[in-house]
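Lab meeting tomorrow. Please check the following:
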Amino acid sequence: MNNAIAGFSKLSKEEKINWIANAYFSDSNEAISIIKKYWNSDSKIQQLHDEFIENTITNFYLPLGVAPNFLINGKYKTIPMAIEESSVVAAASKSAKYWATRGGFKAMVLNTEKIGQVHFIFNGDLVKLENFFKEINHKFYEATESVTKNMQKRGGGILSIELRNKTSLIPNYYQLHATFETKDSMGANFINSCLEQFAKTLKEEANSYFNFTESEKNIEVVMSILSNYVPNCIVRAEVSCKVAELADKNIENPEVFAEKFVQAVQIAEVEPFRAVTHNKGIMNGVDAVVLATGNDFRAVEAGIHAYASRNGQYSSLSHAKIEDEIFSFWIEIPLALGTVGGLTSLHPMVKLSLEMLEKPSAKELMEVVAVAGLAQNFAALRSLTTTGIQEGHMKMHLNNILNQYQVTDEERVLIKHHFKDTLVSHSAAVEFIEKLRK
């Protein structure tokens, strides 16, 4: 069957749904019914969702949970988390409660610089290009005054513009490498607007520069775009306490636990196969808060994983040590986040999440996100080095299995009682369900 279609974007929403249902589903009516079940009953909210992206047919829901009792810099916070994975919110909440009685989380933003680049080809004399750049540098700032005016009022703007020689990597390849401060906005549109003006100014000024030959005047701009790698936009989060204070009902010997925990982190620092899974656990916490607050989790993921590889090998984002009988566990990650602009002022749930966090600045949100990542990592490492990861995770996953097999309320009670002290696995759960139904 040929399912190609011309002019799909011009169809109405109903027409798009009908075409998809008829083209791909044996029961088109059932497909249409499922699609429409996830429409919002408030037509204004549904229209808002429809206009976020193109070719919208329905909404794809993720659960929004909350992790309370996070003591961050001496103040309690309840953190919103949008995620589908079992046990993430429970693990974060457990870590929050654990550390609240041991001094809580400390977090601070170390830097907030963001990067943008104009990539261009210059076929000519390097010395002449360097002199040209020095002479016209101020014109980049002047040409973008209309774009930067409001940002400057908020204390942001263009921090610096450098000429970078990359000809050792690609013949005749150079960059305008610019740093920005965007305050409470993520700043993608602001940065890209500045960069495109830089490119225009670069070409115009080169075309009239008296010292260039005709071929040198013909600078070829390849592209102008922000970078999602922000190694100078860093936030640190940490927890620490005396080793003896690590004890609780699941940690009978805190000295052994602390040593094993540090060893687990050290393994992730040197072994990339472990580091990837280790950092994925951190991103369970990071992404959930980034998504709940309307930020770009794909950009965050790309930047953080690049940072994890900055020394030439992919490595752990978190670190731990025992020094003078004090256990310390910390993380430093790059985060370019915003609390104004984009979805933050449009999506009702994003606005709710930010209000739940008491309307944080971008820096405060960076701190919360880093803490969520560290809390998630602590919970995972604590399980791995004590009871093992599957015990808690599979008990949370049991609900998904029960829903998949559409168990009755009576069956659910019996199944949960059975697995109260029995290791949960998918096969064991299915076997017990089948046994009950016989």
Observations:
- The two ends are 43 Å apart (CA to CA).
